[in-house]
Specification:
The protein has 603 residues and is an alpha/beta fold. Helix content is 61%, strand content 9%. The longest helix is centred in the first third of the chain and has 49 residues. This is Multidrug ABC transporter ATP-binding protein.
Length: 603
């Protein structure tokens, strides 16, 4: 399995500068600002209640106990208990709301990325590994979960607690406060260094996770397993996966250990600060300095200890945010992907499509900015009247499939135009195109679901009778009925429980159920044996009746009755006419027919 893959690089317009990225992240929370305001109120109330406790403790030690005031002592003790209860209640409330908001933001991100990818052209998916796409949605967004659901609230909560605690400390004694906060700038500088280091490692880690996910997706699919076993590469694939996993282990360890010693030093220093405060107060008293009461010292140390947890958490949160910025950047890269095929602001909607297809001076390049390479298609002029059939033939690479994919706008022309009932397909709304044009390709895709669910993908509201009629028309009903679970049979991953011909007939039944007036058959029988091809061809004939049909043919025996046959060569129309007319010309088509005859089995 090849390990190299194409990494998508952000376009010049993609924002990667940190301030703009932070503003963009904040906009994700905008729809939930009312709930966040409630969280803010709860955070503020919790901070006020928390810092009130040391003042109650000071009054207890300096007034209630020395003066023997039992009533005041009871009230102060009750106040401390009430403070603990309120802090717990406020904490549960803010956790519930912030987690709900965070999960909604995660949902919005996942949906936005998936929706963006659904709008990408076919060209994007032909050059991007499936595992890479899955990793962005699963690993990158999943990796942001802690940040989105709790870190934002933790940031506000800890910041509020730190500010409220520092104000309370200053109110108790500003001199001790200065001593306590001397090293704060150093701590902030250390945390920023650690954050930048982890951000770089996280970017590398997510790329490695994406590569590993792509390897798993490709090698552990049914097709991947078959290829690996039959080629004797199972051990090689296992070693390759082990190498990628080993690289991930190293990055995970580096990510978790980045700056760990520096953050540990911060924790040690802050834990040792109460001893420094006691020592400072004792030295000041012995030197005849200002009188500091025991209650003030104990209350101050209590505040300082209360400052320790949110301060360290705040510094750690800063590190987490830096790490998460790398994940957000990868998600924003996908959200900023340029969409090649878009629907115009005032698209044309056709309630009824006759099915006339016309290609006028069509030119196509896979990279519209690359003028050095020859175009895939050049100067294509073809008129397909409604209800008629067109066959496209030619050698491999002549541009047949590409031309067929231009009609439903899986690609957009880079020159000329393609029209449906006289309207440029670029001017039609996507709903009209989806209803009007059906595609049956050589590589049939079936979901890992029941037969009925796979057929209903074309028409979700189809009745059981409609499904059975479509299956009968596609000559697959008898086989489905013979299965133990009938239409409730699960087809398996990519339909591997069915043969190639059976899958093709299921695809044809699915298209019959959708009932499009224009049909594109992309070498739908090329991989089948003669007997299976005959059965599938009968199903195709039923499907093609009274429809405009464009057939991309591999075996010429299937298209001899086409109303017109176009021979493509190097992206240009080399010949056109009926089967008999082209044979009389004795040109490229006649040569293809003779080659086909030589390849046909003799018995």
């Amino acid at each position: 399995m090849p390990r190299d893959h194409i990494d998508w690089t952000p376009t010049p317009g993609t924002s990667t500068d940190q301030p703009r990225q932070v503003r963009r992240i904040l906009r994700l929370f905008k729809p939930y600002r009312a709930r966040l305001a409630v969280v803010g109120l709860l955070v503020g109330a919790s901070a006020l209640v928390t810092v009130a406790t040391p003042f109650l403790l000071k009054e207890t030690l300096d007034v209630a106990i020395p003066q023997g005031r039992t009533g005041l002592l009871s009230l102060l003790a009750l106040g401390m208990i009430l403070s603990a209860v309120l802090t717990g209640v406020f904490g549960v409330g803010q956790t519930l709301i912030s987690t709900t908001v965070g999960q909604r933001v995660m949902h919005d991100l996942r949906t936005a990325v998936y929706g963006r990818l659904q709008r990408m052209s076919l060209a994007f998916f032909t050059r991007t590994r499936t595992g890479e796409v899955q990793s962005r949605i699963a690993n990158d967004i999943g990796g942001m979960q802690a940040t989105v659901t709790s870190t934002a609230t933790s940031l506000v909560s800890n910041l509020t607690s730190v500010v409220a605690t520092i104000i309370a400390m200053i109110a108790l004694d500003w001199r001790l406060t200065v001593v306590s906060l001397l090293l704060l700038p150093v701590f902030v500088w250390i945390s920023r260094r650690v954050g930048n280091e982890r951000k770089k490692i996280t970017t590398q880690r997510q790329k490695q996770m994406a590569a590993m996910a792509a390897t798993v997706t490709e090698s552990l699919s049914v097709s991947g397993i078959l290829l690996g076993r039959t080629m004797g590469r199972s051990d090689s694939l296992t070693r390759s996966f082990a190498d990628e996993s080993e690289s991930l282990v190293d990055l995970e360890v580096r990510s978790n250990m980045a700056g760990r010693w520096r953050m540990a030093v911060i924790g040690i220093v802050m834990s040792a600060m109460p001893a420094v405060i006691y020592w400072t107060a004792g030295i000041a008293l012995q030197a005849g300095g200002p009188d500091i009461s025991l209650g003030t010292i104990v209350a101050f140390v209590s505040l300082q200890q209360g400052l320790f947890r949110p301060a360290v958490s705040l510094l750690s949160t800063g590190v987490q945010i830096q790490t998460s910025l790398a994940l957000f950047q990868r998600i924003f890269e996908y959200l900023d992907l340029p969409i090649d095929i878009t629907e115009r602001e005032d698209p044309v909607h056709l309630d009824r499509v006759k099915g006339e297809v016309r290609l006028e001076g069509v030119e196509f390049r896979y990279d519209s900015d690359d003028d050095e390479r020859a175009p895939v298609l050049t100067g294509i002029d073809i008129d397909v009247p409604a209800g008629s059939s067109l066959a496209l033939v030619g050698s491999t690479g002549a541009g047949k499939s590409t031309l067929g994919y231009l009609v439903p706008r899986l690609y957009d022309v880079t020159g000329g135009r393609v029209t449906l009932d006289g309207v440029d397909v670029r001017d039609l709304d996507f709903d009209t195109l989806a209803r009007a044009i059906g595609v049956v390709s050589q590589e049939t895709y079936l979901f890992h679901a029941t037969v009925a669910d796979n057929l209903r993908f074309a028409k979700p509201d189809a009745t059981d009778e409609e499904i059975e009629q479509a299956a009968r028309a596609a000559q697959i009903h008898d086989h489905i009925a013979s299965l133990p679970d009938g239409y409730d049979t699960v087809v398996g991953e990519r339909g591997h429980r069915f043969s190639g011909g059976e899958k093709q007939r299921l695809a044809i039944a699915r298209t019959i159920l959708r009932d499009p007036p224009v049909l594109i058959l992309d070498e739908a029988t090329s991989a089948l044996d003669t007997r299976t091809e005959h059965a599938v061809q009968e199903a195709i004939d039923a499907l093609s009746a009274n429809r405009t049909t464009l057939t991309i043919a591999h075996r010429l025996s299937t298209i001899r009755d086409a109303d017109q046959i176009v021979v493509l060569d190097s992206g240009r129309v080399a010949e056109r006419g009926t089967h008999e007319e082209l044979l009389e010309q004795d040109g490229r088509y006649a040569a293809l027919v003779r080659r086909d005859a030589q390849l046909e089995p003799t018995s």
